[in-house]
Amino acid sequence: MKSIIMLSCLQLTLLIVILKMNLGEACVCMPMHPQQHYCRADFVIKGKILVDDLKVLSDNDTKMKADNDTSTPNMRMYKVRIEKIFKGQELMGPKKHAEIMVSRLGETCGMPLQENEVYVLTGRQMKNMYTVNMCDWVRKYSHLSRKQRQGIRHLYKQYCDSCQIRPCFHGNCQATTPNTCIWNVSGRMLNNNELDCESDYSRCIKDGAGCKWYMPQTMKECMQRRVQMRHNRIP
């Protein structure tokens, strides 16, 4: 019982730290697996950034304001050449280009978009505009693993309605429902060199009456490397 209380306290402490950093630093987001990004987004695209059409929208730009909003943060608008729409075809239609607004807070968090680079972008539609915030998935397409590319093409969407992914901050969480995959992010939170095998090589899939992590050979090998790295760090 004592160990359970200690683990719960550690988890609570980590959550408090995250929330404080979220409010104060604006560069920390709750961990989200690529499958979660895909399932929660209104659109997922592969696009090339055309910076020559970049412009800045201020807080007073009425196009960005919701009907009851008086304080929308600054956004940068990028013209993007759409190479592939993985989700949101009904929103974007047959467009070859789109104007996408990206939170300027991301610039201080390592998320500036680079000219002529191709990215995978997940985001939402707001008042007929396409928006990407600093906690959405923004990654150079060339940096995606093979499993991630397969995921955004057709695999992630298979279990959006039937499986859930739950991040675990203390490394000893238990699934509360059979349709939950536990994602241990404790090492990633505390050590930047921690391998994120689940994000790079796996997805949460339906298995009989519940859900589990898909275990291809690349995932198994990554997990073995992660265990070895953890073992080597033990004094």
UniProtKB/TrEMBL annotation:
S-S pairs: C27-C109, C29-C135, C39-C160, C163-C211, C168-C173, C181-C204
Protein origin, superkingdom: Eukaryota
Compartment(s): Secreted
Annotated positions binding Zn(2+): C27
PROSITE patterns: NTR (PS50189)
One protein family per Pfam: TIMP
Signal peptide coordinates: 1-26
Protein name: NTR domain-containing protein
Organism: Patiria miniata
Lineage: Eukaryota, Metazoa, Echinodermata, Eleutherozoa, Asterozoa
